[in-house]
Each structure stands twice: as C-alpha cells, then as structure tokens.
Amino acid sequence: MECTEARNSMVGLSSFADLVLGSRAHNMATQSRTDGEARYVLVSLLGRVLQAPPTSQQDSRQAKPPSANRGDIFALGDGAKTWFCPETDFLLWGGFDQSLGELGPMVENIVIPLDMICTYARACETLHILLAKEGLSQLNNIFIDVGDRFTFVKDRRIRDELFKTSSVIVPDLTNYDNRMARIDNAASILPGDVLGHWYRHKAMVSDNTEMWQEISGDVMYAWITTKACLSGEISEENYDDFENGVLMHPSGKTWWDYLAHGAPTILPTCVFAQVSDTEKVDGQIREEDELLSVLFND
Questions:
Q1: In the chain, which residue ranges form alpha helices assigned H by DSSP?
Q2: Burial class (CB in 10 A: 0-12, 13-18, 19+), 37
Q3: Phi/psi of residue 95, each to 5°?
Q4: How far apart are CA 72 and CA 63, in angstroms?
Q5: Taking residues 224-232, what's their average pLDDT?
Q6: For the chain, which has fewer Cβ within 10 Å, the N-terminal or C-terminal residue?
Q7: Phi/psi of residue 150, nearest 5 degrees
Q8: DSSP SS3 for 273
C-alpha cells in the first residue's frame, strides 16, 4: 500500500489532538536544550549556509570521531563539511535533491517550510525522503516554518539585539517564551516588511488553532504511516488492522502506539538566523528568493 493512501482512514482521528499533545509533552525536555547556544546549517535549492567550527575546536577536529553527544565536523553528500552539534543545532531544510551525507543521521531538530509539508500527501513525500534517503533517524523536533521563508540577518545592529549566544532563533509559536520575546523586543529596529511577516505568522497560529491542529495532525499521521511503510514489518494484508489499532507489536503495544510514541514533536515556527563570520555562505542567498528573506544592511 502507498503510504499516502492511508490518510483516507478515519481510525484514530478522534484522539489525534491528544496524540500530538502527548508527543509535545514527551519531548519538552529536549526542546529546552535548543534555547542555549544554538547554531544552524541551511541546506536548500536556493543556497546553503554551513558552519565553521568554534575556534577552540579547530585544532583538535582530527582527533575526534563524529558523535551525537557533542559538536563535530560532518561531511555532506558532495563532500562539503560543516560543524554541527546535534543536541542544540538546527537543520534548516529546503531541498529534495541536496544530499545530507553524514549530517542526516545526526539531526535532532529540523525546520521545514510549510509548503513542503502542508498536506498529508506532501508530508508523506517529504518525510519519506528524509527518513529513507537521508537517514534522519534521531529526530526529536520537526519545526514547520509557517511563513515559508527563513529570515537571515547580517545587519550588525539587528544581530546584536536578536542573537545573544546563538546564531538562530526558532521559536515555538504555540508557547510564548524568551525566543518570541527577543523578536518582539527588536520590533523597533526591524524593517516594516519583516516585522509584518513576523506579526502575521505569529497571529496565524495563535488565532487559528484549529488550522494548526489540522496541519500538525496531518504531519503526525504522515510520520506514523511513513514509518510503518518503511518498517517492512506491516504487510498490505495487515494494514487495516494497523490503522484500526489492533495489530500488535512485539513490545506488547499496538504497532500504531509504538510508532506514535516514538514520533517527534511537531511545532510551528518563524525562523530568524544571523549571517556572521562563522557562517559560510555557499551559493546565492538573495532577498527575492521565495524561500529566503535577507536583511543585508552592513
């Protein structure tokens, strides 16, 4: 069975909001680790931003193997190398044909533009690529950028106001915290179009909770069914039992519950990222690009 066919079933939808909220609570401790010195890597069709290693790590990089417990150097599919700390850093992803190489299995936090994951079928396509092709097996959080663009900041004044010890702000738009407050507090120095973009998409979530629940429910459903299809353990003959929540997993849980409880948190966001001396821009990042909005005002 094609994974995208499974959404037609109504099984389990009555408690789907509870499932999404349960996943959110399960991963809350993980989210808190992304509030510190977070950095980012951008991999998209329109441009790429890689990270130079922290100065203290440059001389010792050869002695340390890649590790999921601390930052290190990872090679992308084309051999380009970037620094990345899986526990705190974000992958800003916007390219189906951009191989992540060694980086893929290390990513715990990913940001995906809304238009790449906005329907169940689209989410299945995107998740199949990320899970089957890129090997993203450690995901804890999927942030969906509801503005369909990442805002990059090079202007020093704005950078100094927005970014303290981090190089990226990925707020959870359902939870007002210090990340959202930092953007709001910088309102007086943000250009009008950028401020309008922020206010519109912050309100898009807060004023339309039912819409966001539908989007996050579709993504969660796509995650579960895609994982089921990729497991190789659920036959077409057993698929209805899987969706009906009666096909049992060897753990003693149903297969549905087993996959659901291992799912990442699905959260809405609107990303701000800085471009400084540690970010290595590869390719063109222009203000007119659909995916990227840039404040380059040195």
A1: 16-26, 28-32, 120-128, 156-162, 178-185, 192-206, 209-231, 239-243, 255-261
A2: middle
A3: -150, 115
A4: 11
A5: 94
A6: C
A7: -105, 130
A8: strand
Q: For residues 167 and 156, what is the distance between their CA atoms, to the nearest angstrom?
A: 12
Q: Is the pLDDT of residue 22 over 70?
A: no
CA 142 to each of CA 8, 156, 242: distance values in angstroms, whole numbers, following the listed order: 23, 29, 24
Joined tokens for residue 91: 């992958």
Sequence-separated (6 or more) residues with CB below 8 Å from residue 268: 143, 144, 146, 172, 173, 174, 205, 212, 215, 216
CA within 13 Å, CB half, 287: 8
As a whole number of angstroms, the distance between CA 247 and CA 215 comes to 26
Q: Which residue has the higher pLDDT, 132 or 9?
A: 132
At residue 44 the predicted structure's pLDDT band, cuts being 50, 70 and 90, is confident
Per-residue pLDDT, 254 = 94
Q: Is 120 left (phi over 0), alpha (psi -120 to 50) or beta?
A: alpha
Round to whole Å and give the CA distance between 293 and 115: 16
Estimate the crossing angle of helix 16-26 against helix 209-231, to 10 degrees: 80
150-153 β-sheet, strand order: 168-169, 272-274, 150-153, 292-295
Residue 201 tokens, joined: 């998409």
How far apart are alpha carbons 266 and 245 in whole angstroms? 22
